[in-house]
Amino acid sequence: MSLLEVSGLGIAFGGLMAVNDVSFAVKPGEIVSVIGPNGAGKTTLFNMISGIYRPGRGAVRLNGEDVTGEAPHRLAEKGLSRTFQNLQIFQEMTVLDNVLAGYHLQERGPIWADLLSLPSMRRRATIARDGARALLERVRLDKTEGQQAGSLSYGSLKRLEIARALALNPKILLLDEPAAGCNAVETEEIDHLITELAGSGIAILLVEHDMKLVMRISSHIIVLDHGEKIAEGDPATVSRDPQVIAAYLGAGQEEEAEC
Ligand SMILES: Nc1ncnc2c1ncn2[C@@H]1O[C@H](COP(=O)(O)OP(=O)(O)OP(=O)(O)O)[C@@H](O)[C@H]1O
């Protein structure tokens, strides 16, 4: 069964249909990428799925439940978390504290228990700290836990953001341009990490301009152009699709669908 189902999703800004009638599904452990030229509607689609924009039409289902237009924190509780195109890292905080910030988003205790530093809260803090350390190991940043986040390389910051999203224990992770601004080595580290996360059963929905990465890791690709889905399929099928090639060539993009 699909974990995420998007059906007939659409939104208009003024007179512009930024996303129009887009449908697709993502199963556990799948890596589904959304590609398309600049302005095709990829981020807007992500914003509707992750509750930042309320869709004008259509529906989003998570595990069979209609979650259309629900707030991001509600979706996070239900197993959907995301990263952003622009890094949302607290540069002044340590690497470990950045991941702990992700845990605190799901804290449930009453505020007075925290203030009184009750044993139950201290126990929870220890569990969160151990969990955050395990996540840092998973994204290969365990050696840097005490460093200020601002001192990390760009590729490491991208992985730190993924670690923080993982603190919410997602069933599906939306990654908005995880390799943007990364060099070849950093991109390869992101590649391994995403593949490993999918291997552990997490569904991945990816927006990414690095076509080599997309073609290498995706199980399925959705292609948008001017807000519409113009093609979908496995990497080989999509990269040969004349409509896809025309959309990229027409937009004069640096990246090409075929690689
Ligand atoms: N908040 C907004 N208000 C008005 N128009 C918007 C808004 N957000 C996006 N748009 C427009 O919607 C269209 C789709 O934009 P979007 O950012 O989703 O594209 P994209 O595929 O993510 O582009 P890129 O690859 O450059 O990030 C564009 O024409 C954009 O100008």
TrEMBL record:
The keyword Transport applies. The keyword Transcription regulation does not apply. This is ABC transporter ATP-binding protein. One of its GO terms (cellular component) is plasma membrane. One of its GO terms (biological process) is L-alanine transport. Residues 4-251 form the ABC transporter domain. GO terms for molecular function: ATP binding; ATP hydrolysis activity; L-isoleucine transmembrane transporter activity; L-phenylalanine transmembrane transporter activity; L-valine transmembrane transporter activity. Pfam families: ABC_tran, BCA_ABC_TP_C.
